[in-house]
Amino acid sequence: MMKPSLFTSGQITRDLSLFVSDSLRLTAGLFNAFEPLAFDVFDGLNEVAGEMQRVGVKSVHLSGAGPCLYGFADDQAQGILIREQLVELGYIVHLVETTESSSLLTLGQSNN
């Protein structure tokens, strides 16, 4: 059940923006308080995550409150290959690239 204690202050997102801007391993800072709940609520989500990992997706995560999942590839070529395999399995897949960290996420913080 959704409850206020599942929501965070947003500090994790701000910290993640610093990971991205400092080129640290992006996946190390990922967190979603709804993941444990979503994998219990949405039938088949575990199977989809397993298929994603089987074809090479790194670090599968829940987007928002679900049921959308996302993950990472080492490079664009691997991402294209992963997308093709998941589409063949009948999934809707979008391949995107990360961008530089937005200054909007680091307002009031030093940009040194």
What does this protein structure show overall?
The protein starts with 10 loop residues before the first helix and ends in a 24-residue tail after the last helix. The model has no long low-confidence stretch (mean pLDDT 81). It is built from four helices and two strands. It has a two-stranded antiparallel ribbon with strand order 1-2. By secondary structure, the protein is mainly α. The radius of gyration is 16 Å and the shape is flat. The protein has a single domain (8-106), classed as Alpha-Beta Plaits. It has helices at residues 11-21, 35-41, 45-54, 76-88; strands at 58-62, 69-72.
Overall number of structural domains: 1
CATH topology name: Alpha-Beta Plaits
Uncertain regions spanning at least 5 consecutive residues: none
> Separation of termini?
42 Å
Helix-strand makeup class: mainly alpha
**Helical content class:** 25-40%
Task: Give the strand content.
Answer: 5-15%
Secondary structure tally: strands? 2
- How would you state the average pLDDT, rounded? 81
Major sheet size, sense and barrel closure = 2 strands, antiparallel
* Helical stretch tally: 4
